[in-house]
Structure formats: structure tokens, C-alpha cells
Write a structure and sequence with these properties.
This protein is mostly helical.
């Protein structure tokens, strides 16, 4: 299998968990959110040309899964 694109998310341990199983798991949401740059300080509307819902949705995912948490 060849994965293309800017975010070729693969199972962290393919010998134990197949890519297909990983992609269907809840873990991928957090892994993807953390792999993308922190958007909380990004200029609003940057991704509107691609998808107007992407940025607000990704900021929320990053808030839930790690970015934006102040320790």
C-alpha cells in the first residue's frame, strides 16, 4: 500500500496494528490533530479556500487532544 498526500498517517506499529485498524480507531483523531501545526494563533480564514470548516474543527480537535493546554 502506498500512502500519498501531506499527511500519510500510518500505524505507529504496523506489525501489530494494521493501517486500516489504526485509521478506524479513535486514536487517529488525536494523532492527526497533534501532527498538524498549532492553529490557535494562526490568522483566521487561512484554510477557507480549501474548506471553511477545517480551521475551526481542527482548532477544536487540537484543544481536546493537546494543543492549547496550558500547564
Amino acid at each position: 500500500m502506498v500512502l500519498h498526500g501531506p499527511f500519510p498517517m500510518r500505524s505507529p506499529v504496523q506489525s501489530i496494528v494494521s493501517n486500516e485498524t489504526y485509521w478506524e480507531s479513535e486514536r487517529i483523531s488525536g494523532d492527526f490533530a497533534r501532527s498538524f501545526r498549532d492553529l490557535s494563533d494562526c490568522k483566521p480564514g487561512v484554510f477557507d479556500v480549501i474548506d471553511a470548516c477545517f480551521m475551526p474543527a481542527m482548532i477544536e480537535e487540537q484543544r481536546i487532544y493537546g494543543y492549547g493546554n496550558k500547564f
